[in-house]
Specification:
The chain is α/β, with parallel strands linked by helices and 303 residues long. It has eleven helices and eleven strands. Strands 3, 4, 5, 6, 7, 8, 9, 10 and 11 form a nine-stranded mixed β-sheet that branches. A two-stranded antiparallel ribbon has the order 1-2. This is HTH-type transcriptional regulator CysL.
């Protein structure tokens, strides 16, 4: 079917690699190359510049990529509407999530959704908040769960959960031994931060700026795992979601630094984000229903 060929072309264009596209689509590289050649023969022109390192679209390829995305989306929309008539939740669901949600909440949600709707194909993309927002803008995602603020009239945003943030350090760190840490106590500390574009980094920057805390030095890491490893090595302190340190707290490897009561509340909202122009499928509706159940259960259990 021509849709399959267009989907392969779109994947090659986005990954800029035949091998990566083949891996993502569970196809052989020769099969992917064959589909691209057939398209080029169909249109009588080169669509892709090939090199040993990566591939780029030709001007004709750029035109086809834009139209292919539109055709694929229209095909999925038609398929979804037909399925709605038949009351079947099926098709593809493209979920995006920022790191904390993607690593500590989404796996359980996807598992629940997959068990309830076995005909649904779920694809997950995890990145920082800005990367996920870009995926929505480019219509590469149907729905996203983010921990940072995203702005723009092109988004529909809805809170779904409150996330508790905590300041952490090694149990032997001087701050961990103070009963109520003040803003002054936090001056001239070494901070472990997430990368720019991360919701956690945005929260940390706002906390430091609000309290006007002088920072002695800071180190940036592009993952929660990196931040935790840096804290465990004694490099400094970090402001993180309580979700990511449950095991380390139970093992006594990391301590939560108790803050003075008059300091700003350490919590933030997790958000559901959708594109204004993205068709709201039955699959998206089913996933958000599972998310609603998860949020309610979490609230009732006091997690």
């Amino acid at each position: 079917m021509i849709i399959e060929t267009l989907e392969i072309f779109r994947k090659v264009a986005e990954e800029k690699s035949f091998s990566k596209a083949a891996e993502d689509l569970f196809l052989s590289q020769p099969a992917v190359s064959s589909h691209i050649r057939n398209l080029e023969n169909e249109f009588g022109t080169k669509l892709i510049y090939r090199s040993s390192k990566h591939v780029d679209l030709t001007p004709a390829g750029e035109i086809l990529y834009e139209q292919a995305c539109r055709i694929i989306n229209q095909y999925q929309e038609a398929k979804e509407k037909i399925n709605q008539i038949q009351s079947i939740v099926s098709g593809n669901l493209r979920i995006g999530a920022s790191f904390t949600i993607g690593e500590y909440i989404l796996p359980e949600l996807v598992s629940q959704t997959a068990r309830r709707y076995p005909n649904l194909n779920i694809n997950v993309t995890i990145g920082n908040t800005e990367e996920i927002a870009q995926g929505l803008r480019q219509n590469r995602l149907d729905v996203a769960l983010v921990e940072g603020k995203i702005t723009g009239k092109e988004f529909i945003l809805e809170p779904f959960m409150v996330d508790e943030m905590v300041l952490i350090a090694l149990p032997s760190h001087p701050l961990a031994k103070i009963k109520g840490v003040t803003a002054q106590d936090l001056e001239d500390q070494v901070w472990i931060l997430r990368e720019t574009g991360s919701g956690t980094r945005e929260f940390s920057d706002r906390f430091i700026e609000t309290l006007k805390i002088p920072v002695k030095h800071s180190y940036g890491f592009s993952s929660n795992t990196g931040v935790k490893a840096a804290v465990l090595s004694g490099l400094g302190i970090a402001l993180v979601s309580k979700l990511i340190i449950q095991k380390e707290i139970k093992a006594g490897e990391i301590a939560i630094i108790p803050l003075e009561e008059n300091l700003p509340r350490l919590s933030r909202e997790f958000l559901i984000a959708r594109g204004q122009q993205t068709y709201f499928t039955k699959a998206s509706e089913a996933f958000l229903m599972e998310l609603s159940h998860y949020s309610q259960d979490t609230h009732e259990n006091g997690l």
